[in-house]
Design goal:
The structure holds 2 protein chains of 2 kinds. In chain A, 39% of the residues lie in helices and 19% in strands. The longest helix of chain A has 20 residues, at 214-233. In chain A, β6 and β7 form a beta hairpin. The model of chain A has no long low-confidence stretch (mean pLDDT 90). In chain A, α12 crosses α14. Chain A contains 15 helices and 16 strands. In chain A, strands 2-6-7-10-1-11-12-13-14 form a 9-stranded mixed sheet. A 3-stranded antiparallel sheet of chain A has the order 5-4-15, with no helix packed on it. By secondary structure, chain A is α+β, with helices and mostly antiparallel strands. Chain B folds into 2 domains: 1-247 and 388-468, Amidase signature (AS) domain (Amidase signature (AS) enzymes), CATH 3.90.1300; 295-361, no CATH class. Classes of the chains: A alpha+beta, B alpha/beta. Chains A and B meet through loops of A and α8 of B.
Chain lengths: 472, 468
Amino acid sequence: MVIGLEVHAQLKTSSKLFSSSPNQFGSEPNENVNFIDSGMPGMLPVLNYGCIEKAIKTGFALDFTINKYSVFERKNYFYPDLPQGYQISQFEFPILTEGFINIDADERQKKIRIERAHLEQDAGKSIHDIDPKYSFIDLNRVGTPLLEIVSYPDLSSADEVVNYMSSLRQILMYIDVCDGNMQEGSLRADVNLSVRKPGEDLGTRCEIKNLNSFKFIRQAIEYEFQRQIEILENGGTIEQNTMLFDTSSGETRAMRSKEFSHDYRYFPDPDLLPVNITQEQIDKIKPTLEELPHEKLERYINEFKIEKNISKIIISEKDNTKVFEKMISETDVSPKVIASWLVGDIFAYVKENNFEVLDLLDRTKLIMDLLKLVSEDVISNKAGKEILPKVLSGEGNPNELVKEMGLEQVSDTSELEKIIDEALVGEDENIAKFQGGSDRVLGYFVGKCLKASKGKGNPKLINKILIEKLQK
Amino acid sequence: MDKKIGVAELYSEYANKAKANLNNSYNYVIDDDENKLFIEQSQQRYASGDNLSLDGIPLGIKDLFCTKGIKTSASSKILSNFIPQYESFVTKQLLNSGSIFIGKNNCDEFAMGSSNETSHFGPVINPWRSKTSPDDDLVPGGSSGGSAAAVAEGSCVASMGTDTGGSIRQPASLCGIVGLKPTFGSCSRWGIVAFASSLDQAGPLTNCVEDAGHILNAINKHDFNDTTSSNHKREDYVSEIHEKMEGKIKIGIPSDYLIDVNQDILNQIENTKKVLSKHEIEFIDVKFTTTDFALSTYYIIAPAEASSNLARYDGIRFGVREDGESLDDIYLNSRTQGFGDEVTRRILIGTYVLSAGYYDAYYRQAQKVRRLIKDDFQRVFNEVDFILTPTTPNEAFKIGDKLDPISMYKNDIYTVPTSLAGLPGISIPSGLSSNGLPLGIQLIGNYFKEKQLLQLAALAEKELAFNE
């Protein structure tokens, strides 16, 4: 199986690629549409330089060659959700060429080469299921800036495609180029797939359009792969088709064949000048580039001494790292301890209660107060876990909660000694066992003391005093 | 003759003439009521002495400029019901300068034509008549034919036109008036119904060169909303228009423009040379190497851009929709019935030259030749300051006379090279043909040399004394 991916990433900008309308999802139909977007006579596009900056950032993040000369061209075709009758895109001279990403593939790293990335306008949406007779058009999405990222056919399994896509998504989110929201269509993929026997030439490919979830990508690839193999094994040939993926049946079906493919009649848009970027402009953007996921991972492991698997969980989403880095900036509790609490009890709570990770941002101070109490042995680890949900749900601050719940650890040595002395009464046999070299009975004594303290005794201190007393 | 006249009186004098020419040089004449407020405001400004540069001046506007709340049809059936909700940059500047719009001038459909015969609303009749066959209705030229006729017949003081391959200069020449096409990038294209984006340029059609300067002062401004709008420093195009030009002026006359030209046309060039030679102006014979290719280059590039620019007229969001059984039928019916023959022809040519397999042979090749044409002009401008040519190869012809497209296209043979190079050109009336019809000469300057070009044109105008 040979796969190449065309990923469309909507850029996170406040306005559209060539007009000043707001670039946002979820508005009322046709609310974010001005005269340019609706293709009114005499309207002219004006390039939003913010989109060029986002493209340059992507260039750095994916090791692209950033082209100082690029050209916007018109891709001509008729459709009701394309008001101008053409899409402004880049064709012969894209802004980025020859980049790559390293992805995980069977415990190894695999380099996936990227042929090009170019800027283009998104189209609007046609809605066919409101009325039996009419179609409805929502032009809000018209002119939304897209970066189309075209890989080489370097991918050879559904797993690799999903890893590639999720790495790409992660990086674009880290550098604030795309919000990565696949459900809202901020990131969508066209999959080009062909099959061949090992060593043979590339087969005829089919393109599956517009997949907007990892699940659909996987399903579509698996279905299409089987479909092509079945045709070939029955002695048939693959037709070069554009396919649609039916999300309800899980099948791919042909949308149009090559004979009916459009002749897009690309030519340079005479309303726009070629884009000339200077070295100074590129240099100015480089320092604004955020830390990339793999750089963060290395830092967490090497600088913070956090285990690799825990580091990976944190860096998997940029939001996690925002919360984590805010936490470590607010306390002297070790990052390693914070990390283990975060991916453990805290994320579990977030998941169970349908929180967003970012909701934690305004509670980090309280969480850190709690972890400080634990790390300073004011309360036990167990007590910390008991208090955490109340802190997260905003029921109070940890210091008050500890008092209210009576969870403060007894660290007063004289009080503990009293408890221990009482616990040792009548235990001569076990004391003799300990002195005879049996460590096991120590655990028994600690447990007994803790129970006697109603769980409030500081286990470390109890341990220490016990050993002292027993060794006498 | 000096005469004082009030704004309202001036307005009604012109507006009445315009009303008489509705469905001829005008597609639409604005109601007096709608202009009442503008007239009063203008009167008040005159009364208080803070009148604006074009205050109270009645203007015609080619029906290609989008005018807010006023029908804008591009003389096409497909836009015959279109009322823009925005004002084009250029007409906005004119309103800001105090002028009052009389109405929308007829033109060729989507500015495609050289005789104003492609308009959905019918042809425009040139106010001039031939001495030899005075009963014939003659064309005013095109595509700004309604604008040229309106100025010539006196139904507006001046009219805003657009020029893509000669659409201001050629009708100005055929109607005996002044027509200026500024350098590409001088006047914003924002809000002008696009024909060929890399060529379209707004400019005035006026009775005299000084009027062209006044209008240019108002409209020649940088516009952030048009990426191709130049941000060069603008000058005052009027204050020194009648002053003697500095230094010794050299004017080139391209011999390759004068092959196979009739005696009437040759006389215009000879006469201009004669009257200007008194003013320390030197005439030099020059020769272009690219003139023969200009027309075919133009008829690849302009239709290519037009085929794409006109894709938005699909009957879906605005304009006239013709129903159909399927989406493709709606497109097919709306566009087949909405566009006239010439527009359809150019869309087809444009679609063809951009098609896969033909792009390199036509469009890319044409772009290369266009570069050579630009270079050719710069080579000549190394030797001379201005270039003098005829504006048109012939006088105004009879409506319906030129039926085949190629002979119609040849009308723009002298104006098209300047357009391809993006240079400024002005046509001024230079004399009458043996049939008593007006003829014009074209003066071409280098990029953004409008100030000097207008000075020279004003001098030529005075010496040629056409208006007397």
